[in-house]
């Protein structure tokens, strides 16, 4: 049995920080202490050793759109970004509304072996908002999170029924908050920039109405609701109030919603087109404040790869979405005025708890715990070069941007799948 030692780093987890080496054997942490030795050593000098990151919101495109991404390439990008587990969104072709598709995704992820992939189920069949997906069957097969992401469930009565089932089955429903009657033809945030450019707008109220509705449905049913990719100041305030009322509501925000504003669409570049859209500087500040005070539980990438030809289409025809897996940690370190421990919490054990995978991921770095770990240098600087990203697509809005914070090693079940910034598979 090989004993691997991560040497010379600072361990950071739920219990705080301490300088220590970490020994790993047979998929688990076996010792945390000083001057440890082993058969294999990973250098962690100047680095943080933390529980592996967990992304609640990733589009892997497979099955159906393998031209943009595959489970293998997306998993590789995740591992390089420090993620040991990701939740795969169900807007595949066919959609993840059956056990057959769920098992296909799981099998492809196991074959790739780069990170754990947890496919989300659909709330409604084919994400069409008409009939509920088979919650019971999928929950019995270990699916814990359900969403129609890309589509919000428009019918409030249907969503109420979904939440009533969810409470009984002890599953979580995650909502894409968009009232589509208010966003038809929308290209970007509805505001002064949108008016100046003459582009159809996506108003903040289209998100906020559904945030409010589902908070109240959670209050009514007692079911858990997770709110995807919050983007407006009012949405943050609604969640803050819901949490003060003790409701079972959680929320996430993306790195692009705390780093980029709608003004970037002035050049009509579709790389900045996303759903929900980039908002104003005031909204960006509110997202940052929500993360800092814990109103927003998790940072999730909404990693959304698209083929180059689709993103090169005119702005009103190009699909929304951006890459995010390999840049998320650095953007959080560089842009958020938060203690590093709180940043890691929002990227690791908090999303692990929401995804209901906290038994394996986001665990303390301690003897006996699963060795799903990330080692990163919070001071290392690097520049985003799209061609060097592991994703099959290149639609990053951060091309040429200098970043601070870089992943050195990622361990999945004790296996170093990334060593010195290079994927091992």
Q: What does this entry look like structurally?
A:
With 425 residues, this protein is an alpha/beta fold. The protein has one domain: Alpha-Beta Barrel (TIM Barrel). Helices cover 28% and strands 24% of the residues. It is built from 12 helices and 19 strands. The strands form 4 sheets. Strands 1, 2, 3, 4, 5, 16, 17, 18 and 19 form a 9-stranded mixed beta sheet that branches. A 5-stranded parallel beta sheet has the order 9-10-13-14-15. A 3-stranded parallel beta sheet has the order 6-7-8. α7 packs parallel to α8. The mean pLDDT is 97.
So what's the CATH class?
Answer: Alpha Beta
CATH superfamily: Metal-dependent hydrolases
Q: What share of the residues lie within helices?
A: 25-40%
Strand content: 15-25%
Instruction: Give the mean pLDDT.
Output: 97
Radius of gyration: 20 Å
Total discrete domains: 1
Question: What is the global morphology?
Answer: globular
The CATH architecture classification is: Alpha-Beta Barrel
> Would you count the extended β strands for me?
19
Which blocks of ≥5 consecutive residues have pLDDT under 50?
none
Computed structural class: alpha/beta
Number of helices: 12
Largest sheet: 9 strands, mixed
CATH fold title: TIM Barrel
Short structural summary:
The protein has 425 residues and is of the alpha/beta class.
